[in-house]
Specification:
two-stranded antiparallel ribbon; 6 helices; 52% helix; elongated; RDD; cell membrane; transmembrane; Pra-immunoreactive; RDD domain-containing protein
């Protein structure tokens, strides 16, 4: 028995639809969206994205944990730096107050950034995130099997807390700094698509997920 010749048409073994869509992620999109409300088709093994409310509550827990230690350390160092000089009249009250505020701002930044860096580098989460079962993972690894590199951990912590360094400025500037902090760091994940990142996440290349 002879087989039909392919000279008059397409080869017998040709695909009926050479443009059929592939089920895999295209090479032009190395970082597909994570699982989460409104998203589908994420790679198997990915953890769902953290909700904004979960992230906010985790930060509030961290704030409650650090408030007394950071405040106490700032008070101690501030008194050591300007207390005796102010009492002895060596510096004016306004200068003493300004110096104290600068010291408090630097201490608050260092405590917060250090806390974030140590916890995320060691465990991938702070105490607040641990309570909410959230983890910081690299954007390039949806499975969460890879930890965030130390350099990115430090950058992420510094960006999130850098505005604290300006809390010693005038009340108007402090309010401006506060609003920038709220919009770009706290609220930005509410409308960021597709990975719900704050600006600190975007700079460091991270996302916050639920689990593991």
């Amino acid at each position: 028995m002879s087989y039909p010749s392919s000279s008059a048409g397409e080869p017998a073994n040709s695909s009926p639809s050479s443009g059929a869509a592939s089920s895999s992620w295209p090479t032009s999109q190395p970082n597909p969206p994570f699982a989460g409300a409104g998203f589908s088709g994420f790679p198997p093994g990915s953890y769902p994205l953290a909700d904004w409310g979960q992230r906010a509550l985790a930060r509030l827990i961290d704030f409650a944990i650090l408030l007394i230690p950071a405040g106490g350390l700032a008070l101690l160092l501030g008194v050591m730096a300007v207390g005796s000089r102010a009492l002895n009249g060596e510096i004016a009250a306004a200068e003493a107050s300004r110096t104290f505020a600068i010291i408090a701002a630097v201490v608050w930044f260092l405590v917060w950034a250090g806390y974030d860096s140590v916890c995320i580098a060691r465990w991938g989460r702070t105490l607040g995130k641990s309570a909410m079962r959230l983890t910081v993972v690299p954007l390039s690894d949806p499975s969460g099997h890879t930890s965030v590199p130390l350099g990115r951990v430090l950058v992420r912590a510094a960006v999130f807390n850098v505005l604290n360094l300006f809390n010693w400025l005038s009340s108007g500037l402090v309010m401006l700094v506060f609003m920038l902090n709220v919009v770009f760091l706290w609220l930005w994940p509410l409308w960021d698509k597709p990975n719900r990142q704050g600006m600190h996440d975007k700079v460091a290349g991270t996302v916050v997920v639920q689990g593991p």
